Amino acid sequence: MSNLHSPILSPAELDQWREQGYIRLGHVAPAEEIDALCQRIDDIMLGEVRYDKMLMQLCPSAGEEELSRQTKEFKGSSLTYRKIQDLEQDPLFLAYLQHPLFRDLTAKIIAQKVSIFRAMFFNKPAEKGVTINWHQDGAGGWQLSIPPLITVWTALDHTSITNGCLQIIPGSHKSMIPEKGDLLSEEERAIHAPDEKRLYLEMEKGEVVLLHNWTLHRSETNTTDKPRRAFSVCYIDQATRQKTNDRAFAQVFPDYQSVEMDTSQETTAVY
Ligand SMILES: O=C(O)CCC(=O)C(=O)O
Q1: % of the chain with per-residue pLDDT over 90
Q2: Pocket of ligand 1 contains residue 121 by CB under 6 Å
Q3: CB of 16 within 8 A of CB of 24?
Q4: Ligand 1, atom nearest to 269 Cα
Q5: Is 30 a residue whose pLDDT tops 60?
């Protein structure tokens, strides 16, 4: 593995994030820490470690239509979960998302007091997974009082075109594109996400990419016999509220302060 990133985001990196809407940060944590996150998320999927009110969704590709709703309940012991949210409840995931580099970059881009909109495991189970079409995260669909700017996406497994790596359109963050929600229509896709602008972000296990939330992205299914696991954290200004119910979000910097859990069953964010 290459050297770990310093705990400081450099001015050049900040410029690239501003111009291109993404920056590859390389590795920020030692391999043993990434392995521990992999083990922990498998334990959560298998029910060996349980938390109350964690949003969980089985992958629709696993064939259990009713169980692939996104609700705050454990859906049974299985490695075919697609999404598990609210991972800040877990001490290993909380420690990782409070990494000093993430503290530095959120202070530079957002504010001193930072919360998370979501701390989310995104999985494409072995030989499964769903195609996620081109979208921006939270440009229109999340109903936040302050637009979200940053997602830190960590590959928990090596990612490749064959296992459904992230695909992005560099520079696409400069405008809010979809007229409704975050998902592009066919016409918008033809204009803003033509094939020649697409970048496949193939990543090493443990590698991190900092995305602007409005950078268009998508991913395809996993055709390999191993899972493609990822941890995605959207950091927001602590003053952000959910417009529909005035809800606040768990603070993570300068320290962790939980909020009363949202007890609504369905999430506002589908992607
Ligand atoms: O992990 C993926 O494949 C897609 C993630 C994504 O679409 C998102 O974080 O909004």
Answers
A1: 85
A2: no
A3: no
A4: 10
A5: yes
pLDDT band (50, 70, 90) for residue 2: low
Question: In whole numbers, what is the pLDDT of the chain averaged over residues?
Answer: 93
* Cβ-based neighbours of 95, under 8 Å, separated by 6 or more: none
**Which of 167, 232, 233, 234 has the most ligand 1 atoms within 8 A of CB, as the residue to mutate?**
232
How many domains does the structure of the chain reveal?
1
- Using a cut of 0.90, tell me whether the model's pTM lies above it: yes
Enumerate residues 6+ apart whose C-beta is below 8 A from 187: none
Q: Which CATH number does the domain housing residue 84 bear?
A: 2.60.120.620
- Confirm whether 271 is domain-assigned: no
Q: Does ligand 1 have an atom closer than 6 angstroms to the CB of 217? A: yes
User: Which run of H or of E encompasses 102?
Assistant: helix 100-109
Query: Is 230's C-beta closer than 6 angstroms to any atom of ligand 1?
Result: yes
Q: Cα of 129 to ligand 1 centre, how many Å?
A: 12
Q: How far apart are CA 105 and CA 221, in angstroms?
A: 31
Residue 230 CA: nearest ligand 1 atom is 1
Residue 209 lies in a domain: yes
Which atom of ligand 1 is the closest one to the Cα of 232?
9
- The whole domain housing 121 covers 11-253
Residue pointed to by tokens 């459904």: 164
Lowest-confidence range among 84-88, 107-111, 262-266? 262-266
Per-residue confidence (pLDDT) for residue 232, from 0 to 100: 98
- 248 belongs to a structural domain: yes
Residue 165, ligand 1, Cβ within 6 A: no
Confidence at residue 263, expressed as pLDDT on a 0 to 100 scale:
60
At residue 90, the 3 state secondary structure works out as: coil
137 lines ligand 1 (CB under 6 A): yes
Residue 35 located in a structural domain? yes
